[in-house]
User: What shape does this take?
Amino acid sequence: MWITNGSVADVAVVWAQTDDGIRGFVVPTDSPGFSTQEIHRKLSLRASVTSELLLDDVRLPASAMLPEARGLRGPLSCLNEARFGIVWGAVGAARACFEAALDYSRERVAFGRPIAATQLQQQKLAWMAVEVNRGTLLAAHLGRLKDERRLAPEQVSMGKLANVNAALEVAREARQVLGANGITLEYPVIRHMNNLESVVTYEGTADVHALVVGGALTGLSAFR
Ligand SMILES: Cc1cc2nc3c(=O)[nH]c(=O)nc-3n(C[C@H](O)[C@H](O)[C@H](O)COP(=O)(O)OP(=O)(O)OC[C@H]3O[C@@H](n4cnc5c(N)ncnc54)[C@H](O)[C@@H]3O)c2cc1C
Assistant: This one.
């Protein structure tokens, strides 16, 4: 379920449980028995197609199996790369929301002065700036660790958890600064906010990343 570009792709990479443990397969999407079902009525990440992949007695040559990837190592190392990207992507969405709120607050005049001149809005803007910069620094720090090949998966989990949650809070705060205009697609804020709801869930839910961090902190796995 929930496979991005599932019904437009020519090949699907499928990780499956076999007698030989988890193995990866490159599946041409025109294989007999392979079909897709597009997921409609999404209110998040609407610009990309999301699909269910159905495999019904699909037969593949042995050459379709990824030779080196065995067990969960293969899929998890892919996810680790993607999640590191999300650490940055989330902070980019947050920055776009913050900048939209800053611009809007300077332009929107209420009772003879821009709302940017009020203490309440400045407090929101200051908080958003702190979160955006904190997220950027966290991403940069993880990037430097990655360059030195010292980045642990638990640190990627911490970055994904922290930056996506912070970005969602920044988007919600920015949406308020825009008042009613915050709910229209004339401004980028609600689009980022709705998209971030998917980002909280995909590439490991916030819950699951919290369990990864919790496991690293305590030495006790909460996974069942
Ligand atoms: C727009 C979009 C695009 C996506 N694209 C892709 C893609 O291209 N490829 C892909 O593989 N996946 C993709 N996904 C799927 C995404 O990775 C999953 O939705 C996600 O992993 C959560 O799985 P689930 O929806 O089955 O939720 P569930 O696993 O049913 O989880 C439901 C809730 O229970 C919690 N939960 C689950 N297990 C535990 C546990 N052990 N302990 C405590 N809490 C738990 C979760 O955190 C969540 O809050 C996409 C999702 C979306 C929304």
In short: Residues 83 and 203 are 6 Å apart (CA to CA). The chain has a mean pLDDT of 96.
